[in-house]
Amino acid sequence: MNTFNIVWLRRDLRLTDNTALIHSLKSDNKTVVLFIFDFNILDELDKNDARVTFIHQQLTKLHKELDKINSGLLVKTGEPLKIWQELISDFEVGEVHFNRDYEPYATQRDEQIQQLLQKNGIAVFSHKDQVIFEPHEVLKGDGTPYIVFTPYKNKWLEHFDPQQIKVEKKLETDSFVSIDSSLPTLEEIGFQKSEIKVQEYDLSEVDNYSETRNFPALNGTSKLSVHLRFGTVSIRQIVKQVYNQSPDFLSELVWREFFMQILFHFPRVVNENFRAKYNGIQWRNNEKEFGRWCKGETGYPIVDAGMRELNQTGYMHNRVRMITASFLCKHLLIDWHWGEAYFAKKLLDFELSSNNGNWQWAAGTGCDAAPYFRVFNPTEQVKKFDKEMHYIKKWVPEFQNLNYPAPMVDHKMARNRALETYKKGISG
Length: 428
Prior knowledge:
Order of helices and strands: EHEHHEHEHEHHHHHHHHHHHHH
CATH superfamily of the largest domain: DNA Cyclobutane Dipyrimidine Photolyase, subunit A, domain 3
Number of strands: 5
Low-confidence stretches: none
């Protein structure tokens, strides 16, 4: 039996500029590319989850690419530890390469599998791939993590050298193991095809990003976040492309890494407020009101438009994400965890660190959050960012009809109630 390497894909669903793959192909051993449908993750999802459909479609593309060079993708389903136990008992594995993930479940899983492989005498190599800087690479002078964005960003930019960013495009075509394998169907892994589709990313508007970013009716967003989330494009390729085009767009990419390092250094944020002084807030948590927010039936057209866009497409414009999140936490006084969980279920680009960080930002409980007394006025937000109501008309066509609901809560009353509740919670 010949010895071969395994490259384990997770959040890096591409063959070009994939760090783990590049390193594996430098070895004398040939390489097998592996993907595991992890039941620990899949068991939490709805059976028509659009993200699983997207992953399956991407794996099909990769399988076809490998098939052209007489190889193929090895796809397994189940619990990763058991699958790795089977692989190393069935095959002569020389090296295992994977790209690092920084979320709590992933780090725990990877450590467990690394120990298993090392006990069995298999060399394991993990690589930096989904970020420009890892959580330990951008730190304060005293070695502690940044908890405010702007100083973090300044240090990030100080470290960053565009000349050092290399994007690998070539594949060594004779370095893959020739395997005859077929992918399991969606149905075989317990899922069904979703009607919601992931759009291709488009960087053609990056030059105008600063002018267009806040207007949801404009085609000013790149649709890039889903592709970064699943690694269908390399962050190095993107940063190299946009570095000189738009400081604001680059800043959004730095925010992504800021929240990743917050989650890595402070994993408690998954279940807790980053700032403990907000633990005393008495959320109202009215389930009926939460249901209206989820459906986009609040009587505030900009909020309803955002929630309907999310429900129907898996996308929501970033400005509208801020408005809908603020409305839930401040106007309805519903715990940010509820909104975070709903977004986690619906967003195509759901990433634990960004979702958690942005929800805590909106609620005022996070590391670099909007102050608690900042309460978005949904009506004023429409005047600023959807003056002609093109976005609202698209998603809430009935907003001027008699059957459209009246606002479920008065803005002034809700704002005052939120300020009182926050003050009481913080001092209590």
